[in-house]
């Protein structure tokens, strides 16, 4: 669950990955050969060295980089991503379509009670109850609460992914807020110009309700080429109202008209973390990370923040000085703002196999005496040793924060992998653990808290209240002084988690869902799983969750969950590690985001991707690590260097004569294996790759969707920019299928997932992209339309799981959680007695009541029935007014049926 300080720039990765460069003789385009890099750091929470932690983060980043880079040029093309955004914003919306089209309604599936990576929290100074808070999820957006975190509302636009890193309130006008974008440390999707470089700085003038971009900070969000692509911290001057931005290698000041660079540390190094804080009197302090430039690293100050800067950590006068080896973060003591605490990476490693050492130092500057005091000896080193946990670990500065209690200048809290407090830093003793991992002896989590601490924020109205922002969202303690600090989760509709893969229960009518998440393990949800509603989820796995599946092959309903680098578990009838072994005690190599596939209609069959090798079992409920069948490898069978990325099987009861398995690789190939449960090896597979697909690593096949009732229809998707990305065939069982390119208006999109649904003979095709979910009834003739703009928006749709028995589609996003759609029949326009399309409901979704606009031809005696998604009647009666009380219904989707005489109508609504 760890990251390391890793500013990932195109220049560095090109030197790392691209080893062969040549010219394509048919074009003027330079062709770059990208070599596949396999990284296998140690598993969840047990990383041993700084080098291994760096590898762990690099593996996560490479997973995303390989899905974006143009395989022929070696770069993620800025112009292509600009076109992608323009295509997304200009696409038609399904909700605006008219005529005879299938209906899709989307509901939230959470996790509403579990949060994702949070770097910034601010308590509104204009609300003296302390209940108004604005926070930022790194890939989830900006959220606001007015009830102390009992519920949150997303206030940043759904049509952007802002990658929020810092929020600041203007003390001269508390209605004015700013948030910054662009995470430079440890982002799971930050490699070489990914989606999560920034889009500059955004401003609100209405207390954080609505936001607009400051035009002068506009960023292309594609490649790192400007300071506003990565922003670490914002602060607003208390007298001038000037905005200060600690960007990549610079401290910049905005006077509401133009920007001035106050300190320029350069913007070309790979280690340019910055920070900025301002006293209530207007003195500004800035920090620059170490190891890149001896002339700039450390801490600087200016009396008013307009020129006049001097360095205070190594000023040549004070004999007590320090030189940081990495990131530096700052905190002022609110009750005595002459005191500035400085926590910084010192270059040590807490490797238990050698001589472990605390990874940071802590110093305090006193502006009244112009001296530093070294408090590094107070930092925690508990009994024993635990890699990445104890001694005090900060993962190269990925998680590093210091804060001071508002009413006590000596009460200090710090965060790294874990959080700690010391009530009197001038006294005896050291910091004690208050969050993160439960203890120094292992990797169980502290109760109601999460490792990887990014924000520690005291309430300005109650000095005992502290908020914690971590990789697990937001938590609150009401008494930081308690001997054992207790936390309460505030992840109530703070929906910010990042799914790699999602799975839906194959049983018709079941609402059980499962999903593997970046850095947050695997979650399970559903009222049939025992949850109180459809959005609450339970964590059932650790580490980086990956592929997941739900089986009905045994009465216990087995979950199959995976962890990074190949580990695979089955949780019942007995919990077992079933990771395939190549030889006793030696598992097969795997990609970082582990991939396997459970046949959704024949749950006995389980397929496992061991890089280029396919493993199979036809006894998934009982398979052990040593009882898998090795089906062979692509490099020896086909002389192709494809590592398997995605699988798909024909739907329905298994038939040796007609069933097949599709396998997609990372060098662009697609293979069809007939009768996969009985095939001796993949040697009998047929290469059915579209002729115009890019056959080059990395050309990632991300989606293979087989029509639920017609096995000849297949939708195939690729994710890389600069390549053809959506193909459709209607003769997939031929020896050499005919493929049609059906990108149409998504020609510049990175396509991440695919599904095909059929409702009453009507087919609808879905693709998940880097900019939302799209559908088309016939992409050979009709452009794709964007689905769910108000729920999914432009979130990266990483995974789709479809259940044809009742037309449920589960959608996993990387940053905005999970959603579900029920795809329903088109209206029968030939039935003159069905006037559903004349009825309207509002509000929808609703919490208390539904209002109906009903045609006069319905008359005055109208009977209604409310049914759930299974068609079961929940309540019925006669309308006395055009209102129905639905406050007692559980959260979910329902249908209202209206009847009077020979007229009828049906409408869907959501009880939220």
Automatic annotation (TrEMBL):
Lineage, opening ranks: Bacteria, Pseudomonadati, Bacteroidota, Flavobacteriia, Flavobacteriales
Q: Which residues form the Secretion system C-terminal sorting domain?
A: 841-910
Q: Which domain of life is it from?
A: Bacteria
* Statement: the UniProt record of this protein carries the keyword S-adenosyl-L-methionine: no
Sorted alphabetically, the keyword list is: Signal
Name the record gives this protein = T9SS type A sorting domain-containing protein
């Amino acid at each position: 669950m760890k990251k390391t300080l890793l500013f990932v720039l195109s220049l560095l990765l090109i030197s790392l990955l691209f080893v062969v460069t040549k010219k394509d003789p048919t074009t003027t385009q330079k062709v770059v050969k990208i070599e596949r890099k396999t990284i296998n750091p140690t598993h969840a929470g047990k990383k041993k060295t700084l080098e291994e932690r760096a590898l762990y983060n690099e593996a996560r980043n490479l997973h995303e980089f390989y899905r974006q880079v143009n395989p022929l040029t070696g770069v993620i093309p800025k112009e292509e991503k600009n076109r992608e955004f323009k295509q997304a914003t200009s696409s038609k919306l399904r909700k605006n379509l008219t005529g005879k089209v299938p209906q899709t309604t989307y509901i939230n599936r959470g996790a509403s009670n579990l949060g994702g990576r949070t770097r910034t929290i601010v308590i509104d100074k204009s609300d003296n109850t302390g209940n108004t808070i604005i926070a930022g999820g790194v890939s989830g957006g900006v959220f606001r609460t007015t009830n102390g975190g009992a519920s949150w509302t997303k206030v940043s636009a759904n049509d952007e992914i802002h990658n929020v890193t810092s929020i600041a309130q203007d003390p001269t006008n508390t209605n004015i807020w700013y948030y910054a974008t662009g995470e430079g440390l440890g982002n799971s999707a930050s490699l070489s110009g990914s989606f999560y470089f920034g889009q500059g700085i955004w401003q609100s003038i209405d207390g954080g309700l609505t936001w607009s971009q400051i035009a002068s900070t506009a960023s292309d969000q594609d490649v790192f080429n400007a300071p506003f692509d990565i922003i670490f911290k914002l602060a607003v001057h208390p007298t001038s109202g000037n905005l200060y931005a600690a960007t990549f290698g610079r401290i910049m000041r905005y006077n509401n008209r133009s920007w001035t660079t106050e300190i320029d540390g350069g913007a070309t190094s790979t280690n340019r973390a910055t920070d900025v804080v301002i006293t209530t009197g207007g003195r500004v302090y800035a920090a620059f990370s170490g190891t890149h430039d001896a002339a700039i690293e450390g801490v600087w100050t200016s009396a008013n923040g307009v020129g006049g800067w001097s360095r205070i950590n190594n000023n040549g006068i004070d004999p007590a000085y320090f030189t940081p080896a990495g990131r530096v973060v700052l905190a002022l003591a609110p009750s005595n703002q002459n005191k500035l605490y400085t926590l910084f990476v010192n270059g040590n490693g807490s490797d238990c196999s050698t001589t472990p050492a605390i990874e940071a130092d802590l110093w305090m500057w006193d502006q009244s005496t112009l001296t530093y005091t070294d408090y590094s000896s107070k930092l925690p080193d508990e009994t024993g040793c635990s890699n990445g946990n104890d001694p005090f670990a900060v993962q190269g500065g990925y998680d590093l924060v210091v804060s001071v209690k508002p009413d006590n200048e000596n009460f200090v809290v710090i965060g790294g992998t874990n959080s700690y407090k010391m009530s009197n830093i001038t006294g005896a003793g050291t910091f004690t653990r208050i969050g993160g991992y439960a203890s120094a002896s292992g990797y169980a989590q502290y109760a109601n808290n999460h490792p990887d601490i990014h924000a520690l924020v005291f309430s300005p109205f109650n000095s005992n209240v502290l908020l914690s922002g971590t990789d697990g969202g937001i938590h609150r303690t009401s008494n930081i002084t308690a001997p054992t600090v207790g936390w309460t989760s505030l992840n109530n509709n703070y929906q910010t988690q990042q799914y790699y893969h999602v799975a839906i229960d194959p049983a018709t009518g079941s609402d059980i869902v499962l999903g593997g998440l970046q850095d947050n393990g695997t979650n399970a949800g559903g009222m049939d799983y025992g949850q109180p509603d459809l959005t609450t989820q339970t964590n059932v796995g650790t580490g980086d969750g990956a592929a997941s599946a739900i089986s009905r092959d045994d009465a216990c309903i087995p979950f199959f969950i995976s962890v990074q680098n190949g580990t695979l578990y089955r949780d019942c009838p007995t919990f077992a590690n079933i990771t395939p072994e190549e030889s006793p005690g030696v598992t097969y190599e795997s990609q970082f985001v582990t991939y396997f596939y459970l046949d959704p209609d024949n749950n006995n069959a389980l397929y496992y991707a061991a890089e280029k090798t396919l493993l199979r079992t036809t006894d998934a409920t009982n398979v052990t690590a040593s009882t898998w069948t090795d089906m062979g490898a692509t490099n020896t069978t086909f002389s192709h260097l494809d590592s398997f990325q995605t699988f798909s099987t024909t739907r329905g009861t298994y038939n040796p004569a007609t069933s097949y398995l599709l396998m997609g690789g990372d060098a662009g190939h697609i293979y069809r294996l007939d009768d996969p449960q009985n095939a001796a090896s993949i040697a009998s597979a047929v290469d059915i790759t579209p002729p115009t697909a890019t056959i080059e690593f990395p050309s990632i096949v991300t989606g293979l969707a087989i029509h639920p009732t017609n096995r000849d229809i297949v939708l195939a998707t690729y994710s890389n920019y600069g390549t053809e990305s959506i193909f459709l065939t209607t003769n997939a069982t031929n020896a050499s299928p005919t493929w049609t390119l059906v990108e149409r208006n998504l020609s510049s999109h990175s396509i991440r997932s695919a599904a095909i649904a059929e409702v009453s003979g009507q087919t609808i095709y879905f693709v998940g992209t880097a900019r939302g979910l799209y559908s088309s009834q016939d992409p050979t003739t009709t452009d794709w339309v964007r689905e769910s703009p108000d729920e999914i928006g432009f979130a990266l749709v990483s995974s789709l799981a479809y259940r044809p028995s009742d037309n449920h589609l589960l959608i996993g996003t990387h940053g905005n959680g999970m959603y579900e759609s029920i795809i329903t029949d088109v209206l029968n326009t030939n039935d003159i007695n069905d006037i559903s399309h004349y009825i309207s409901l509002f509000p929808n979704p609703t919490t208390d009541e539904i209002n109906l606009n009903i045609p006069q031809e319905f008359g005055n005696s109208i009977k209604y029935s409310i049914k759930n998604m299974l068609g079961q009647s929940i309540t019925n009666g006669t309308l006395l007014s055009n209102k129905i009380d639905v406050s007692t219904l559980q959260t979910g989707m329902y249908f209202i049926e209206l009847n009077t005489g020979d007229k009828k109508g049906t409408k869907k609504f959501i009880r939220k």
